[in-house]
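Q: Sequence in, structure out?
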Amino acid sequence: MISYKHRFHGRNSLRFVYANGKTYRSTFLAVRIAINSRTTDYRCAVVVSKKVSKSAVKRNRMRRRIYEIIRKNEAEIVKHLDIVVTVYSDQVVIMPANELEETILKLLQQSQK
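A: Exactly. Output:
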């Protein structure tokens, strides 16, 4: 899990990213990124809808896997970014860890160009 200072607090923060962010999409998930000059660190949220999986256990497992990938690679993330990762497929649960990590890092690199 990422630390408290790297998490979103309240819905208005997410609303800012959805209104002003740019989306980078792959087959199973999308990353929406907005530059936020009011923060000194990056913030991240993972959104998994009930449409993706009815099971809360699977949704939470997807969230934990993505948060861990972001935590491990936080040195590569540029400061002042708000990141929202949205999962669109339940294949993320069974996807190999290295493949999921490659996908997320590729999307983050695309956003920082």
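Residues 4-111 form a domain with the Ribosomal Protein S5; domain 2 fold (CATH 3.30.230.10).
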